[in-house]
Amino acid sequence: xxxxxxxxxxxxxxxxxxxxxxxxxxxPTMGALHEGHLSLVRAARAECDVVAASIxxxxxxxxxxxxxxxxxxxxxxxxxxxxxxxxxVAFTPDVATFTPADxxxxxxxxxxxxRLEGAARPGHFDGVTTIVAKLFTAVQPERxxxxxxxxxxxxxxxxxxxDLDMPVAVVACPTxxxxxxxxxxxxxxYLTPExxxxxxxLSRALFxxxxxxxxxxxxxxxxxxxxxxxxxxxxxxxxxxxxxxxLEPLEGVVGGPARALVAAHxxxxxxxxxxxxxxCGAGTQ
Length: 285
Ligand code: AMP
Fold this sequence. Notes:
9 helices, 285 residues
């Protein structure tokens, strides 16, 4: 595995496979790697000739008072995990160079970014789309892999790619969970054993809503809020049942697919999770 720290070095490394018309898959992450991240690498490895993966703790997507400084970082260990999972090229740009203080350009996806995470974290998605657009420009992958764990992010990136005619296929990968249902997240590292137990409430509520899903968005939303509202140590941020594409809240009985999305604070840690609602529990989780 080669490690490139500048866009220039990355381009030079990817020049030859590009000229040889090899398919390039790309996995962007913020590091502190777990099986969720590595599942994206494996999906890319299975489908592409060359796999590039980045590690960049993106300062633009953290708001004031959020955990940018405290976010877990372990570059050496992450690089070893990338290599073991089959990454060919790791891209680890430096914060000051990749996000210079004098930059004037922001990529903004309207509408979709105003709800849910966007309402709770103003400016978050501008930070995400600006950096993902820069990463796509640097890497120029044919395929880019994102987890359904960050479902709104996935929808926003798909929309950016469509609206800007970016020549990249966005591939969604299912959420990887612990055996007890909790979604893997780098932020789980912040939880004490007791909080880890309380954090199970998010997935417990989602699976309950899915198991009882009868097409009624109002009762599914009420169930999510009831379960999460009653759980000790859990401070509900939002629990919504939305259209999977527009992320508009659904009301009453709906004929088509739906997505349940939740966010909550457990201690000082903010966690998110989501699940597709359908009667058989099939499809991308
Ligand atoms: P992050 O490093 O948290 O920004 O995540 C990088 C990528 O990994 C994003 O596409 C996430 O959606 C994805 N990801 C994070 N956690 C999981 C998980 N538990 N299962 C699947 N994908 C995940």
